[in-house]
Amino acid sequence: MGNLSYAILGTGALGGFYGAKLQKAGNEVHFLLNSDYQQVSQNGLIVESKDGDFLLPQVNAYNNVNKMPSCDVVVVALKTTQNHLLTQIVPPVVKNNGIVLVLQNGLGIETEVVQIVNNVTVIGGLCFLCSNKVGAGHIHHLDYGKITLGEYALNYHPVGITARMRAIAKDFENAGIEIELTEDLLLGRWKKLVWNIPYNGLSVILDATTDELMTNLYTRTLVEQLMFEVQLGAKSTGRILPDSFIHTMLEYTVNMKPYRTSMKIDFDENRPLEVEAIVGNPLRIAAANDFSLPLIRCLYQQLKFLDRRNSL
Amino acid sequence: MGNLSYAILGTGALGGFYGAKLQKAGNEVHFLLNSDYQQVSQNGLIVESKDGDFLLPQVNAYNNVNKMPSCDVVVVALKTTQNHLLTQIVPPVVKNNGIVLVLQNGLGIETEVVQIVNNVTVIGGLCFLCSNKVGAGHIHHLDYGKITLGEYALNYHPVGITARMRAIAKDFENAGIEIELTEDLLLGRWKKLVWNIPYNGLSVILDATTDELMTNLYTRTLVEQLMFEVQLGAKSTGRILPDSFIHTMLEYTVNMKPYRTSMKIDFDENRPLEVEAIVGNPLRIAAANDFSLPLIRCLYQQLKFLDRRNSL
Question: Architecture of domain B187-310 in CATH?
Answer without folding.
Answer: Orthogonal Bundle (1.10)
